[in-house]
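Attaching the record inline, Q. Sequence:
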Amino acid sequence: MNKKKYTIAQILPALNTGGVERGVVEISKSLVENDFKSIVISSGGHMVSQITRNGGIHYNLNVHSKNPFKWPKIRNQLKIILKNENVDLIHFCSRAPAWIGVPLGAVLDIPIITSVHMRFRKSNLFKKYYNSILTKGNTIIAISKHIEECIKNSFPKVTKKIKIIPRGVDLDLFNPSKINPARIIAQSKHLNLKDNVPVIIMAARPAMWKGYQVLIRALSKVKYDFQCVLIGAGDGNQPFQNSLIRKIIQSKLETKIKLINSTRDIQAAMILGDLIVMPSLTPEPFGRVVLEAQALGKIPIAFDHGGASETIIDGKNGFLAEPINVNSLSEKISYALSLKSSKREKIGEFAKKFVSKNYSHNKMCKLTLSLYKQSIAEYKINS
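Structure, as predicted:
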């Protein structure tokens, strides 16, 4: 058995709340548990304490800078850290840090892995050039088949370097049996929910492409009783909120739809929902909300594109509507509301098993660590 303790460096802009950040924390923890040495380099954030608490080492460095004139100095500082720590592999989780650090792979003679978490749109040439840095690694991690296709379409020559490793869901955090009833009661009061009326929840940041207006239009066609909470819509600026309120009033849904701010206890909020809707107008790279809903045993409904197409089996663990089709979305919501509670529970149970089997944090970490070891071994053979 090889007892060498490989040293892995993960580099990202910052360690604030987000899917990428949560993934880095989990991988760092898994590295330590599996006798690797974990180094994380970022500009800081409230999740740094989780890295150090789990046995990882964090270095604070301005790797989120998008100013090319600052990159040489930051690159030199990064080089010193990587050299002093005898890093065996560098994993870049974002574009700005990659522009700073990817050249150090050749300088230090170690392999580079990059992760792609966003769509590569065929936009202007500058954007394509800026995105291209994430194709320069020895291996490229795509978080979904949808992202893999986006990379292939924009950069067909790197197809063989792509490895799909989906993001994972923390099954302890999104475990219905581990959510204290007091948390649920507190969220119910916060959301001001009525008793015995089905609850539809949409949890998203305040951006029109997330599909708020489309959902309102779809709900105006639903004949069943419901109450809908748009979690996160209350964080939007006044023009954003006003546009949604106007649409709600026009649709005569003032008594059924409410806008609220984002909540720190999204698990307790989501567990109050009967349906969790994700009507994004453009394909989500992955769509974590769908998996979190499934982990809680809830029914997700989304448009049939992007990551949702990979995580929802229509009618089995959620429902898929035709992309950007108001009538189709309305029909899926209506059908889900018409189901008996026993049928909803059956779909919810299947959803939980599906996530546990295919999208757990443990599986993501296991696949990532395996890739690290494979990449180091192959690099040594080929160098």
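Residues 7-168+360-382 form a domain with the Rossmann fold fold (CATH 3.40.50.2000). The longest strand covers residues 37-42.

More tomorrow.
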